[in-house]
Amino acid sequence: xxxxxxxxxxxxxxxxxxxxxxxxxxxxxxxxxxxxxxxxxxxxxxxxxxxxxxxxxxxxxxxxxxxxxxxxxxxxxxxxxxxxxxxxxxxxxxxxxxxxxxxxxxxxxxxxxxxxxxxxxxxxxxxxxxxxxxxxxxxxxxxxxxxxxxxxxxxxxxxxxxxxxxxxxxxxxxxxxxxxxxxxxxxxxxxxxxxxxxxxxxxxxxxxxxxxxxxxxxxxxxxxxxxxxxxxxxxxxxxxxxxxxxxxxxxxxxxxxxxxxxxxxxxxxxxxxxxxxxxxxxxxxxxxxxxxxxxxxxxxxxxxxxxxxxxxxxxxxxxxxxxxxxxxxxxxxxxxxxxxxxxxxxxxxxxxxxxxxxxxxxxxxxxxxxxxxxxxxxxxxxxxxxxxxxxxxxxxxxxxxxxxxxxxxxxxxxxxxxxxxxxxxxxxxxxxxxxxxxxxxxxxxx
Length: 446
Fold this sequence. Notes:
Shape: elongated
Number of strands: 18
Strand order of the largest sheet: 1-2-6-3-7-17
CATH architecture of the largest domain: 3-Layer(aba) Sandwich
CATH topology of the largest domain: Aminopeptidase
Radius of gyration: 24 Å
CATH class of the largest domain: Alpha Beta
Number of helices: 13
């Protein structure tokens, strides 16, 4: 370990208690971007982020709104001859779900057994806290140019990010982008993400009647809409659980082994429930398409009667494999639903949101520097992984800044449960991530 590394390690350690306090304060702001009545809290969160950057000495801090939720851009100009690094995170969070199921209040950060429990603790307010730790370790004078881009609507698909990038292209231009919003391979095992699935969804409506009918009088010859919808949704998978929508090309998968006993523990799948699909575990969750029925509109059980329903609807979500355009994938989904209408039912499909998948090569001199920094901070080399979820803005950055290197890093681990009940952050991994990023900025300068 060099003297420079030792000094930087000590500086990061010195700022970590204050960074933890800042993270706790940020978590207490319920910045749920998907809920209109929380818009003022998302604004409050953006202002909080901007204030932290000003307090650390950032000379140019702006809150930008381009038709959506507020994002924060902060810029430290590059010293002569040094590159610029853009550090990304998002300050919005998911809804809590049923708060009665949480073991702690979701917006009151609670430390237990080396983890910090709260909504947003891992996804992604800790991502911004990592950036803040590096800036504080350098006392507001980083050795390279640094741009902070802290988005306020990632959890709703980043609908205005294209406009933000277009209108603020010069502010966001950089040589390296560090996207702190993915997952590590395991607690204590760092990872860089190299493939991400995209997203396409739709609402499918099935009509079989112009009015409801008595099920005893006409059941057995007249198809009701809910049974018809169920049969249609059943065509989305074959008997083995593979996605049955035609037209998807295979994409190479990682060779990492994901043991099924680990998968069973991490997912909580019930005893006796078998896995869907064929192929390796990482193929099925990282590089193959998946289809999920998110919701169904139909008569509730409490209000059920002996009636043939005339209409039923469902929301269907498709995870798009790397290498496939999200709009093309949406068309494949729509075409499948329209062509598989049971019993001649009238099927109409309303297209929803899309987000592009990503392929992020971890290679070249910047990747080598990053691998060295992460190895030093974590005490072991990082692995390269995929994720099954979507971060559509990565593709936006790649398209807007094609000459830059993108690094997709993480603060979450398999036990973090982002979007779920009792979301949490592994505090040891968080500290390692803070040191790793500081080392990266230092080594990119040297």
